[in-house]
Each structure stands twice: as structure tokens, then as C-alpha cells.
Amino acid sequence: MAKNVTPYMQKVNARLEKERKKGKRSTPLREAAKRYKRNKIAMIGLIVVIIFILVAIFADLIAPYGYDENDYTAILQAPSWTHLMGTDDYGRDIFSRIVIASRYSLPVGFICVILGLLVGGGLGLIAGAGGERVENVIMRIMDIFQAVPATLMSIAIVAALGNTMSNLILAILVASFPGFARTTRAAIFTVKDNEYIRAAQALGANKARLMLRHMVPNGMGTIIVHATSTMASSIMIISGMSYLGLGIVPPTPEWGSILNAGRPFMLNAPWYTVFPGVMILITVLVLNMMGDGLRDALDPKLK
Amino acid sequence: MWRYIIKRILLVFVVILGVLIIIFILSEITPGNPAARLLGTEASMEEIEAKAESMGLNDPVIVQFGRYVFNFVTKLDLGQSYTTRQPVWGELMTRYPYTLTLGLLATALAILIGVPLGVLGAIKQYSVRDTVIVFLALVLMSIPNFWFGILCINTFSVKLKWLPPAGTGTWYHWIMPVVILSLGGMASLIRVTRSSMLDTIRMDYMRTARAKGQKESVVIIRHGFRNALIPVVNAISAQMSVVIGGTVMIESVFALPGIGKYMTDAVTALNWPAVRGGVICLAIAFSILNLIVDLIYVAIDPRLISRYNGVRGREIRKLKKEMAQARAAHAKEVNG
Questions:
Q1: Model confidence over A205-218: pLDDT tens digits?
Q2: A48, A54 in Cβ contact below 8 A?
Q3: Whole-complex ipTM
Q4: DSSP-based three-state secondary structure for B234
Q5: What radius of gyration do chain B's Cα atoms show?
Q6: What is the pLDDT of residue B303?
Q7: Can you give the residue range of the structural domain that contains A84?
Q8: Which residue has the higher pLDDT, A245 or B134?
Q9: pLDDT tens-digit series, residues B131-155
Q10: Cα distance between residue A284 and residue B311, in whole Å
Q11: What pLDDT, in 10s, does the model give residues B232-253?
Q12: Which residue from B minimizes the CA distance to A161?
């Protein structure tokens, strides 16, 4: 054990002592969690994200009306206690529609990110850990995919394949997986030359074990951060696509399509377009706040 | 240096060819017979058949792809629009200036505002000013631009009547679309500039510059900012793709007659040749802009060239080759 020579060491030792009493070992992950908890903006982001997930799960219980429940006596009403966010041109309760829409917007974004992580991350891993030639081929193909801006690519794919939920997911996946490949490759590159990798290699670990047991966990930080920001941008693209009439088709509620439907009534019923937009804004904002917090917590050197 | 530049330019052609392949595959799996779409609903089966034969739709896919690329490269022929029966290339060219103006102005505005704000934030980290700038960047990054566009039209055009709501004509028409399109890029430039500045501000040469009695503004700009520029240029090139994607949304919100509007109209009318042409055009524009940024990147970062073909680079390549040979020889010895 280190001696208490400097005030700083005393502090460190005191902390270690305290942790030993609690029976907790200081691991990089626990350290990161501690740093994350100290970051107020990041914590707000995390809490709101959890609230949104709960709202999406219990949407049926929270929404006071059905998403397609018409009431022709209450058309385009301003927000009030009976209709928290007002009603639309069919007399449907906008609050209920927005709450139920989170059942589509959030999981679709999440599925896109998971698939993008598997496909793009896998390719990036092969490119990063494999030889120079493999890497060149994979990365040049990623260049080609990235030469078409994400929004354009998604529009082209949905236009070609037709307007369904699975095609929408495919479209966003194709637009986002090159980013994952690039990030994963970069992350693998930073850990690849570390001594513990060589040590594991010397101990006889095969390539798969080297990649999955040693490289991936150590490079995970950057990849997770990229996943959070990709989820934010995916949600933005999904709602943008529904706004153009290419995403999730009405009457299924989706933030972008509710917003688009409200456009003609902008002047008399601004709440019809304002609230869905605010929901998209808040969702993307809290995801970005969480991503920033994760980046700072997982890699304290970056600032 | 020339070696790098030539290789980089060749890469643009490879990328564009790749984009053509992707788009062509997409158009192959699109349902519907192009000949039937071109002739309209009154055409008889025989007419459609004859048209398909003359368009070469019965040839193998690979031949069709070859012809498509050949026609595009030699005659700039991207096919006919289903709705107007006009060549797609001509229609795209009349719309190109609008998209280019919108994209370039938005990028310029993003740089002009984003970069100074990032520097201002970094100079006094954790101050109130810094916190405000960081949070502003977060919010700007999260605003859905199509929604913000609608809100701005409603506020500034309909209610206050300050700015025209849509269309083109005077420079007033450009204010809202350009500002709104620039927000996303501005946010990411603020963030990148700030973190890159924070890295350089802690460098020893900054302290040295101050120690020799240099003025603070000169220290920040000449010693700090210039060294922080490389990630910023990189971010500008990454942002280009977002801006070009954003023009599609913004043009449809503000009814600007650019390529984005053309494409969204074409998508709703299932006018596939037009969509295909639009995507190819924007991808080419994007590749060329990226090439320019990459060349600027080389000009400001001499390390890149030396790594590529300087004495050191050559030595490293030679060493790598030797090591690979040694490794192969060793493997042979062990296995065989």
C-alpha cells in the first residue's frame, strides 16, 4: 500500500479504505458510473429517457383516449384539462396520440441502432482486427455507402421498396451502419496495439477470442456513445420521413406524421404541430445529453 | 503529395461508380414496368412491349447497367421523367443552382457562427458563457429542422409578415431556409471547435507563447486556433452530408425549386428515374465537396503527406513489408 506522503495520496487512500469497507472494488466501469452520476446534465438526460421508456411501455394506461377515437363535437380544440394538448381535425385527443406514438418512434429507433450495431460493428471489427487488404475493401465499400447522405439513402430505399415499417427500418439501417463500421474500426485501432492484447495472443488466444473478449470490451466506450447519438439522429430521420409521407403511414400515430397532418391548421390550431415537434425535440435532446455524459464518463481524457 | 491527390481523385470515381450500382440495384427491385409508366395508361400491350424492347428493358441487367452508365458518362442522359416526359438531366440542371446556393450559404453561416462560438466557449471553460454555448449547441443539434421551419414560417411570415413564407426571388427568401438549415452544422462545429481548442489550450507551446509576452489574442488565434483547425475541417466535411440531406427537407418546407424538392415530388409520384437522377447528382456533389475539403486538409496538415510519401512513410512501408515477410516465413516454419 502506498504511503500517505502527499495530501492527494491521503485522499486516494482514504477513498480506497472506504471502498474496501463497503466491499466494492474500484473497477473502470464503477469509476465511469461514478463520473456519470456527478454530471447533472447527463443525469437529467438519463432520467427523462427512463420516463419516456416507461411512458411507451404503459402508453395504453396513460393515454386518456384511444389514438383513433373520433369526437366530431370537439374538433380542433385548444389545450384544456379534458384535452391536455388539444384535439385534431378529427376530434382526436393529441396527447393520447403522442403518447401512443412513442410506442412506434422509440422502438423503431432502438431496433435500427441494434441492427446497425450488429451489422456495422461486425464489419468494423473485421476491418479493424483483420489484415490491411480486408480493411481496405470493407472501408472503401463503407465510403460508397456514406457518399449518399443518410436522409437521401433512406428516401431512395423507401421509394424503391414501398412504404412499410420493415422497409423503413431497413432504410435507416442502410443509412446508419457505415457510421458504426467506421467508429468500431477506429475504436479497435486504439486498443489493438495494447500490451494486454499481445499478452493474450502470446497465451494462445485465437482471433475470435482476441476480438470478442479483449478488443470489443475495451473499445466499447466510443461505440456506445456513437450508438446513443445514432439513436437520436435515427429518431429525427424517422419523423422527417413520416413528415414527407414516407414513414409510418396514418392512422398509426407517429410524431412526424401527426406534425405533417397539422400543417394546414397551423394558423388556427398551432398546438397540433407544436406538441409533436416538441416531443421529437425533447427525445433527441435527452438522448444527446445522455450520449455526452457517457462520453465524458467513459473516456475522462476527452473533454 | 501528388500521389495522394491522384489516389484521392481516383477514389471519387470509384465511389460514384459504387453509388450508381446501389441506385441501379434499387431501381431494379422497384415494382412497375418503366415502359408502361412512360407511355401512360392508354397504351396497348403491344406498344408497351415495343417500347420496352427499344429501351432495352429485355436485356440482361448487367447490360442495362452498362448502358445506363455509358449514357450518363457520354451523353449525360439519366433517362426520362415519368411525369413530364423531359430528360431528367435537364430538369436537374435547372434546379441545381438553388440547392447549391442553399447548401453553401448554410455551410458558410454554420462556419461563421459555429467556429467563433466554439473558441469563445473553450477560452473560459466551465464559465457561464461556456455552459450557455454548450447547451445551445445541444439544443440546436436536437431541433427537427422541418418542424422549426414550419414554426418560423408561421411566426415570421404569417403573423409578423417580415419575411416571405416560401419560394424564391429576393434575398429575403433565402434568410429562413439558410438559417434553419445551418443550425445542425453550427451545433456540431461549436462542439468540435470547442473540444479541439480545449486540447490545444493545454499545450506547452501556449504557455511558452504567453511567457514570451505575446498578446493574449495572438496567442489564442495564432498558436491555439491554427493548431486546433484540423478536427474542425474534418467536421466540416462530415457536416456536408447532413447539410445535403437537410436540403431535401428544407426545400420541401420552403417550396424552393431545388433538387431536394424535385426528388420529394418524384418520390410521391413514384417517378423513379427522377429520384435516381437526384440521388446520383447529390452524391456526386457531395463527393466533390468532400474531395475539396480533403485537399484543404492536406494543405493545412503537412503530417498527412509526410506520413504518406515522405522519407519516414517510405521507411515505415518498407519495414512493414519486411516484417510481414518475416512473419510469413516464421509461420511457414511453425506450420510446415
A1: 888 888 888 888 88
A2: no
A3: 0.79
A4: helix
A5: 26
A6: 65
A7: 39-302
A8: B134
A9: 899 889 989 989 988 889 888 888 8
A10: 48
A11: 888 888 788 788 888 888 888 8
A12: B30
pTM reported for the whole predicted model: 0.81
Same domain for A147 and A234: yes
> Are residues A55 and A22 part of one domain?
no
Question: Domain segments of chain B: what residues?
Answer: 97-311
Q: Is A240 on the interface with B (CB under 8 A)?
A: yes
CB–CB of A188/A125 below 8 Å?
yes
Q: Do B19 and A273 touch (CB under 8 A)?
A: no
Find cell 426545400 and name the residue: B251
Distance CA B103, CA B107 (A): 6
How far is the alpha carbon of B297 from chain A, nearest alpha carbon, in Å?
18
CATH superfamily ID and name for B97-311: MetI-like (1.10.3720.10)
Pairs of residues, one from chain A and one from chain B, whose beta carbons lie less than 8 Å apart: 140
Q: Mark whether A18 and A111 lie in a shared domain.
A: no
Which residues 267-286 in chain A show a CB within 8 A of chain B?
267, 270, 273-274, 276-277, 280-282, 284-285
A140 in contact with B, Cβ within 8 Å? yes
Cα radius of gyration (chain A): 24
Instruction: Give me the sign of the Cα torsion angle B228, B233, B236, B238.
Output: negative
Interchain pair A284, B144: CB under 8 A: yes
Same domain, A21 and A75: no
Each residue's pLDDT tens digit, B41-54? 677 777 777 777 77
Residue A122 domain-assigned?
Answer: yes
Return the number of other C-beta atoms located less than 10 Å from residue B204's C-beta: 7
In a domain, A34, yes or no: no
Residue A121 has pLDDT above 80, yes or no: yes
Total domain count, chain A = 2
